[in-house]
Amino acid sequence: MNNIQPKIIAIIPASGVGSRMQANIPKQYLQLDGKTVLEHSLSPFLSHPNIIQIIVAVSETDSYFATLSCLKHPKIQIVFGGETRSHSVLNALIHADENAWALVHDAARPCLKRSDLDKLLQIQFDDNEINQGAILATPAIDTLKRSCDGKHIAHTEDRSTLWHALTPQFFPVLTLKQAIESALNQGIAITDEASAMELAGYSPQLVLGRSDNLKITRPEDLALAEFYLTHQENNDD
């Protein structure tokens, strides 16, 4: 990034309840291969030497986070999240160094590989793109249909230019903070950080990521994540 290494922090919004998991506890605290989902999601950031701080945003009513010993790590700062993911990320950004860059990662993405994290951190920007940022993503490979009413097909999308957005997503702290604030002030719902940056006029780079960097959303995702983690343990690259 213009040959200057910025401070890098990680932000983990972890205040959701994961209602689609049909579990009696938030999905980030479900057990997966001997650890909680959140512990797996934090692991690549805790072990990375270039990441100086991790800000985890939890719900004010969260009674589980205090039981995790890893959240007492000196790199980690706990803050309270907000009503939505974007509010939680914004609350974390408020506590971050405005001169740093932030890696925002889903608490329920436990299969991030170090190689993908390094690829994102090594992205280079020229002087005209220095604040654009970048995200991990995978090209769409399935045939994609657009519905006209939620039940019927309107048409088939051209998938050649479509990508699945993953995390981490990597942006300057101050730029991202301003972009999210602007979106919220306009009453626009954003589902990831890149959406806020796009609304602010930026065009983040797409960095090819691994398809096994899945987000746990439904009950069947837990078994698939366990398979991926077991495979990674036996086949580290």
Report on this model:
This protein has 237 residues and is of the alpha/beta class. The chain has a single domain, classed as Spore Coat Polysaccharide Biosynthesis Protein SpsA, Chain A (Alpha-Beta Complex), CATH 3.90.550.10. The chain has helices at residues 37-46, 85-94, 114-121, 173-185, 193-199, 219-234, and strands spanning 8-14, 31-32, 35-36, 51-58, 76-80, 101-104, 134-139, 145-147, 153-156, 163-172, 205-208. The strands form three sheets. A seven-stranded mixed sheet has the order 5-4-1-6-10-7-11, sandwiched between helices. A two-stranded antiparallel ribbon has the order 2-3. Strands 8-9 form a two-stranded antiparallel ribbon.
Please give a handful of descriptors for the protein shown.
alpha/beta, Spore Coat Polysaccharide Biosynthesis Protein SpsA, Chain A, two-stranded antiparallel ribbon, globular, 7-stranded mixed sheet, 237 residues, single chain
Q: What is the CATH topology?
A: Spore Coat Polysaccharide Biosynthesis Protein SpsA, Chain A
Tell me about the biggest sheet?
7 strands, mixed
- The end-to-end span amounts to 25 Å
- Give the overall pLDDT as a whole number: 91
Task: Write down how many β-strands occur, each being a DSSP E stretch of 2 or more residues.
Answer: 11
Adjacency order of strands in the biggest sheet: 5-4-1-6-10-7-11
The DSSP helix count reads: 6
Low-confidence sequence ranges: none
Shape: globular
CATH architecture: Alpha-Beta Complex
Q: What would CATH call the homologous superfamily?
A: Spore Coat Polysaccharide Biosynthesis Protein SpsA, Chain A
The CATH top-level class label? Alpha Beta
- Rounded to the nearest angstrom, the radius of gyration is 18 Å
Supply the helix-strand structural class.
alpha/beta
